[in-house]
Amino acid sequence: MPTASTAPPTGRTESGPANTLAVVDPTVVAETTATVAPALPAASTTGGTVWLTGLPSAGKTTVATAVAERLRGTGRRVEVLDGDAVREHLSAGLGFSRADRDTNVARIGFVAELLARNGVLVLAAVISPYAAARDAVRARHVASGTPFLEVHVATPVEVCSVRDVKGLYAKQRSGQIAGLTGVDDVYEAPGTPELVLRTDNSTLDASVDAVLAALSERGLL
Ligand SMILES: Nc1ncnc2c1ncn2[C@@H]1O[C@H](COP(=O)(O)OS(=O)(=O)O)[C@@H](OP(=O)(O)O)[C@H]1O
Ligand SMILES: Nc1ncnc2c1ncn2[C@@H]1O[C@H](COP(=O)(O)OP(=O)(O)O)[C@@H](O)[C@H]1O
């Protein structure tokens, strides 16, 4: 809710009826507003979405977080949308069927576009295994003229399964889970992503630099 110090002179107050100030002498309102209204910020920086797709343990979250950290130091408005975290809230209750994954990706894409359209730089770290679902997210951004960069975190499954940050690959091997992306469930690699990161043969810093360069090339930094 807007506070008294930031509310525009709409003639409304939070506690009174909508037209409370409409009966007040407008010069008084003008004086009051002139006293408390803060200076408007300069035009906001263009937002955009960086969509990191890849297998579990590929490095999506690690890269997204590191890019965000670098940018926060510059004062840029940045948000990380992580599939894992979103599944605890916005996508609570969804599983890993194709339908549920598509729903999850569509929800994250919706929020990403909303934030990006309003000047936030969004880093979405989501497996998003199906090309059609990712393309739909891109289309949503294109429709509103919001920049969208697909980044394939293309770490090979052999490397991901050794990293096995959450023990999922081991669980799949021992038969405790099935339908693990890249092992016994589909992962459709992007055909023409804006950027491909191979975290198995380059450093985290190099990946962060590559993402920042891609943003800079598009005037998003
Ligand atoms: N069966 C199966 N397949 C793939 N991933 C699995 C599975 N079960 C649980 N997890 C964990 O779920 C984390 C979030 O996945 P996402 O929301 O990004 O997946 S999806 O885009 O909806 O497919 C995902 O997080 P990351 O490891 O960070 O990618 C996995 O750790
Ligand atoms: N160059 C690199 N870039 C990103 N992560 C790396 C790199 N080298 C090793 N790692 C490690 O790989 C793991 C990736 O995990 P995470 O970012 O959670 O993957 P994801 O989000 O794709 O599941 C982390 O433990 C990270 O420290």
Overview of the structural elements:
Strands 2-3-1-4-5 form a 5-stranded parallel sheet, with helices on both faces. The model is unreliable at 1-24 and 26-33 (pLDDT under 50). With 221 residues, it is of the alpha/beta class. The chain has 8 helices and 5 strands; from the N terminus they run H-E-H-E-H-H-E-H-E-H-H-E-H. It is globular. It binds 3'-phosphate-adenosine-5'-phosphate sulfate and adenosine-5'-diphosphate. Adenosine-5'-diphosphate is lined by residues 54, 56-63, 125, 163, 165, 199, 202-204, 207. 3'-phosphate-adenosine-5'-phosphate sulfate is lined by residues 56-57, 60-61, 83-84, 87, 96, 101, 104-105, 126-129, 166, 168, 177, 179-181, 185. GO terms for molecular function: kinase activity. It catalyses: adenosine 5'-phosphosulfate + ATP = 3'-phosphoadenylyl sulfate + ADP + H(+). It is an enzyme of class 2 (transferase). The active site is at 128 (phosphoserine intermediate).
